[in-house]
Design a protein that fits this description.
The structure holds two protein chains of two kinds.
Chain A: H1 2-39, H2 41-50, E1 52-58, E2 65-66, E3 72-84, H3 92-102, H4 107-119, E4 126-129, H5 134-142, E5 150-159, H6 167-170, E6 172-175, E7 193-197, H7 198-202, H8 204-208, E8 212-218, E9 224-231, E10 238-241, H9 245-255, E11 260-266, E12 272-278, H10 283-288, H11 292-300, H12 309-312, H13 322-332, E13 341-343, E14 346-349, E15 352-355, E16 363-365, H14 367-372, H15 376-386, H16 388-397, H17 419-426, H18 432-439, H19 449-460, E17 471-475, H20 497-512, E18 531-537, H21 544-549, E19 564-571, E20 578-584, H22 590-608, H23 616-620
Helix pairs in contact in A: 9-22, 13-15, 13-16, 15-18
Chain B: H1 13-19, H2 22-42, H3 51-70, H4 73-100, E1 108-109, E2 114-115, H5 117-133, H6 138-142, H7 145-162, H8 167-184, H9 188-209, H10 212-222, H11 231-243, H12 256-259, H13 271-304, H14 308-332, H15 350-368
Antiparallel strand pairs in B: 1-2
Helix pairs in contact in B: 2-3, 2-13, 3-15, 4-5, 4-7, 5-7, 5-8, 5-14, 5-15, 7-8, 8-14, 11-13, 13-14, 13-15, 14-15
Classes of the chains: A alpha+beta, B mainly alpha.
Chain lengths: 633, 382
């Protein structure tokens, strides 16, 4: 106890010394704080106002979009822009007026600039004009002194070398609108572009890359004093598509000015080589910014260029649907391939008469000849015996009546009616007559050209549930050895192989038998032959009176009243590889209009096939990201 | 040993909890809440990512503190050396794996959480020295041989931590250690001699050994304002922010300098700057006032304690806490070089928070066992 007493005395004495020391030190801190905040406070307040650090974002290079062979579909180009920094001028109107003396600016632009100035912070530059020619740039530079707040800036802008030919796939980039803002400061950068449609939109985040940062010291007037730190961003990922740009161009040109669409896909992998929709538009115009007039012209065009008809156009499949009906009938067992029906040119059901396109009648028809000659009466008969629910179920297995997830926005589902659907949607029972119409692909049934191509692919590949896709690979900038996405082994949709062979034989006959509806559009070169099916869809009602006096020819009708022309097909006949669907709105007959187009496309795609020699050379000189391996099963 | 009326180490858990100084706990809570507010502001008015997580960590720390507080003080006495040994071993492991891995490494990753041996060492050294001196007679302490051993025990971890490199923690630990030697009764002449020897070693080193560019570097480190674009830049900005706060500050969430994001590490080392910018001199004084109250508590608890072990722990913890506060605030005001030291209870950071709460737990443990007498043999289980 005594011993502890001594220790305690020393401990407490020294503790007090220590505590005193701490008190002195803390008082020092308080004194320093008083000095900095009160005595020197004003000085630091001024410094705080004058000396500001601002972080500026460096826009990353947008990733390129390449076709399957690495041919650029979307690239970046130098772009001279004239900017106005509102903070640097006392009078925005004066600056704009001065600029207007040197280069033409429309009143529309002036209004837009003023609107943006209100929306943005005053030190952020606003773009007045972009994509300027060098002469204008030079003229502005010379007169810079008279135009406070106006500066020239070299940026990069998106450019689509053959954009018009692939607008439906590529989509476009365009300025950020208020509803796109997510709080990401990159989006607030003047002139920043984001994908607004097509693959540009699908892969927008990957294509965008990561922004860099430069830290600059600015004075009270926003003028940059010096750069303190610079961290470069990361360019966006290169995106390889499954599209063959040359083929895409060929197809788009072949469709011409018609309101039409065509899809070409690999039946084994689901790679979409071409997705064309016409009339088309120039995506570069969207990047540049459309004028009011341009926008009006696009939006009011009756052939709706902005609608991607290949995935969003919904059409009755017409006779191209007959394979589905035949398969459903065979599967139910109501007919065999050899069952015969007699076509008189019409079929009576209750009070109604259902006509065959061949008014004189086809005579005795079995399945092969009914598909080859597209006899309607035969299909009325077997549809009646099969029932709508089974036909719809078969169509679904072949990819119709559903979204196929081809990445692009706006894909439509189509419609595969059933009894239950009609009861629910229309509140009336299904009529047998409607089943008959479904038998020839008319009535309620709706499909998209993409679905028709997928159906054809599934028939041609031996009944595998192939799914279409457009992205081959997204290659991030900082990854040396990117993973190649694997194409899955597609499951069988469970169609009895002899049935499928029967259908394929009939499709072969359509274009290779002299009786076939597409015989005139056959491919003669051995090894390149195609198989297919024509379809002609009536879009108006033919009255009894008209039928008696003679049905009007398509060329005598208004464009809007003409038939849709359809064709689905695949090639080569033996060992097929490519499926195609062509839909020409109000084009006329399937065999006269759509089949020749499909024939040209199938010929071209086979000629271009790198594994088939001939013109494959051009393609081989490009870098492949990975060679396409096709599982043939 | 005879039962004395003061011996309380056989208290029940309930009694111990009752004995805890709850007003001290309340003060800790109030100070930490100011920290949450500042972290909320640092994230531009968001609980994410800092304030919300800090609250969770504080809750965990509170639990840890109370747990440490109710453990029998004899347990800490008995395991003081073992705890030191484990901390030292972990420091070596970090040093070793750090040299194999890339660059500076301070953590050991246990999957679920990481431990930072240098933080553990801060506490271990307090326990170690308290254990070393708790039963030493004054005559023993006076002998130089009794000083050499603890000095080595401080120097070894200090060397390892400095190599990490973590200068802040090194200085804090060494200074705390020296303060404890002082409190334990080591003769004054030892400290005087030590100080003179240090100066004597520095002068020839400065004049003859160091090259010009090395001197230059040291000078910039000591006076960063010599290099306003490099090392001095942050300090200058910190002073501008702090100074422009004035008497009452610019208001919560209104600190333009802090929010223009020029202020480095505003959620950790420079959080005091932000507070002083937003709440001015008044706000800064309130926080310092809270700290002073906590320090007074630590001081009072130490003096009130009836055993030397508890006293040394109490003052050790208090001194360490003080140094933490002082170095951080002096640093952001440009009085000390930037060494990297968070502001206790306010800065964002889990490990620092848990370490501090652990040491507060020890302080409360001392308070709970303030009347317990610990005999010379107590460490061996008697």
């Amino acid at each position: 106890m005594h011993r502890d007493g001594d220790r305690y005395k020393i401990f407490s004495r020294r503790s007090i010394v220590l505590f005193g020391g701490k008190t002195v030190l803390l008082s020092g801190l308080v004194g320093r704080m008083y000095y900095l905040q009160i005595i020197e406070g004003e000085k630091y307040k001024t410094l705080a106002d004058e000396n500001r650090i601002s972080l500026k974002l460096i826009a990353p290079k947008r990733g390129r979009i390449l076709d399957r062979f690495g041919r650029p579909m979307a690239v970046n180009q130098q772009n001279y822009r004239v900017l106005l920094i509102p903070e640097n001028t006392k009078d925005v109107d004066f600056s704009l007026m001065q600029l207007g003396k040197v280069i033409p600016i429309s009143s529309h632009d002036v209004q837009r600039v003023k609107r943006e100035i209100k929306r943005r912070r005053r030190f952020l530059p606003v773009i007045i004009r972009e994509n300027m020619v060098w002469e204008d740039v030079a003229r502005i530079e010379v007169n810079a002194a008279e135009m406070p707040g106006i500066t020239i800036d070299v940026g990069e802008t998106r450019f689509y070398p053959d954009g018009t030919q692939a607008a439906s796939v590529l989509g476009y980039v365009s300025g950020v609108s208020e509803k796109d803002l997510t709080g990401d400061p990159l989006l607030e950068l003047p002139g920043f572009r984001i994908g607004k449609a097509g693959m540009e939109k699908v892969h927008d985040l990957a294509l965008r890359g990561k922004s860099g940062i430069t830290q600059v010291e600015v004075n009270a007037f926003g003028r940059q004093i010096r750069e303190l730190e610079r961290r470069e961003g990361l360019p966006g990922a290169e995106t390889w598509l499954t599209i063959d740009m040359e083929l895409q161009k060929f197809v788009t040109k072949r469709l011409g000015d018609e309101a039409a669409s065509a899809v070409v896909m690999d039946i084994h992998t689901g790679e979409v080589l071409t997705l064309a929709s016409t009339p088309t538009f120039d995506p570069n115009a969207f990047n540049r910014g459309l004028s009011q007039a341009e926008w009006k012209a696009l939006a009011s065009n009756p052939r709706s260029p902005l609608n991607n008809k290949a995935i969003a156009g919904q059409y009755s499949p017409g006779s191209t649907f007959k394979m589905v009906v035949a398969l459903a009938a065979l599967e139910k067992g109501v007919v065999t391939a050899n069952s015969k029906f007699f076509c008189t040119g019409e079929l009576e059901l209750g009070d109604s008469t259902f006509h065959c396109w061949e008014r004189r009648g086809h005579g005795s028809m079995d399945m092969l000849s009914a598909i080859t000659q597209s006899c309607d009466v035969y299909f009325y008969e077997i549809a009646k015996r099969t029932g709508i629910d089974r036909i719809s179920a078969m169509a679904r297995r072949l990819g119709m009546g559903q979204i196929l997830d081809i990445e692009l926005a706006g894909e439509k589902k189509g419609l595969m009616p059933t009894r239950a659907w009609k009861k629910k949607a229309k509140r009336v029972s299904w009529q047998q007559g409607e089943t008959l119409l479904a038998g020839i692909g008319q009535g309620f049934i709706l499909t998209t050209p993409l679905q028709l191509a997928v159906m054809t692919a599934r028939l041609a590949n031996g009944g595998k549930a192939v799914k279409p896709h457009l992205t081959k690979q997204v290659v991030p900038f900082d990854v040396a050895d990117p993973v190649v996405p694997e194409i899955p082994e597609f499951k069988s949709i469970g169609i009895h192989p002899p049935h499928l062979n029967m259908i394929k034989k009939a499709m072969g006959a359509v274009s290779n038998s002299p009786y076939g509806t597409a015989y005139r559009s056959r491919i003669k070169e051995p090894g390149f032959q195609l198989a297919g099916k024509t379809g002609t869809v009536q879009v108006r009602r033919i009255t009894k009176a008209e039928r008696e006096t003679g049905v009007k020819k398509n060329k005598d009708l208004e464009w809007r009243e003409r038939d849709h022309a359809l064709f689905v097909g695949y090639a080569p006949l033996k060992n097929p590889r490519y499926a195609v669907s062509v839909v020409v709105e109000h084009g006329g007959g399937g065999s006269s209009i759509a089949a020749p187009i499909a024939k040209d496309i199938l010929m071209e795609v086979q000629r271009r096939d790198p594994s088939r020699g001939q013109s494959g050379k051009a393609a081989k000189s490009h870098n492949f990201p990975n060679s396409t391996t096709v599982k043939k099963g | 040993m005879a039962l004395s009326p003061f011996r309380q180490s056989d208290m029940s858990l309930g009694q111990r909890l009752w004995q805890i100084n709850w007003f001290f706990v309340l003060l800790v809570g109030i100070t930490a809440s100011i920290g949450f507010g500042m972290l909320y502001s640092a994230a531009n008015g968001n609980f994410d990512p800092w304030a919300s997580r800090q609250m969770i960590r504080f809750a965990a720390g509170l639990f840890l503190m109370l747990m440490v507080a109710v453990i029998d003080i004899h347990v800490w006495l008995r395991y003081a050396y073992a705890i030191y040994a484990v901390s030292l071993a972990l420091l070596v492991v970090v040093e070793f794996s750090g040299s194999i891995g890339m660059g500076a490494q301070r953590w050991i990753d246990l999957g679920v959480f990481t431990i930072q041996p240098s933080e553990m060492m801060k506490i271990s050294i307090i326990l170690l020295l308290a254990r070393y001196f708790y039963a030493a007679r004054l005559e023993d302490v006076g002998r130089i041989s009794h000083v050499i051993v603890p000095l080595i025990l401080i120097a070894v971890p200090a060397f390892l931590i400095m190599r990490q490199p973590d200068l802040g923690t090194t200085i804090l630990m060494v200074t705390t250690g020296i303060a404890m030697l002082f409190l334990a009764g080591v003769r004054i002449w030892v400290f005087v001699t030590g100080a003179l020897a240090t100066i004597a070693a520095v002068i020839p080193l400065w004049n003859f050994v160091l090259l010009d560019y090395q001197k230059q570097r040291l000078l910039t480190f000591l006076d960063p304002e010599k290099d306003p674009l490099g090392a001095g830049y942050h300090i200058l900005q910190s002073k501008i922010a702090l100074g422009s706060g004035g008497m009452f500050g610019k208001g919560f969430l209104e600190g333009s300098q802090s929010h223009l994001s020029f202020l480095p590490e505003k959620q950790t080392d420079f959080i005091f700057t932000m507070m002083a910018e937003e709440f001015g001199l008044v706000g800064g004084l309130v926080l310092i006032g809270l700290y002073v109250m906590l320090l007074i508590y630590g001081f009072a608890i130490s003096l009130r304690c009836r055993n030397q072990f508890g006293r040394l722990i109490g003052m050790g913890v208090t001194t360490s806490f003080f140094l933490n506060i002082f170095v951080n605030i002096a640093m952001v005001m440009g009085l000390l070089p930037v060494v990297g030291m968070p502001l206790p209870l306010i800065s964002y950071g889990g490990t620092a928070m848990l370490t501090l709460m652990f040491s507060f737990g020890l302080l409360l443990c001392v308070y709970v066992h303030r009347d317990v007498q610990i005999g010379p043999g107590a460490a061996d289980g008697n």
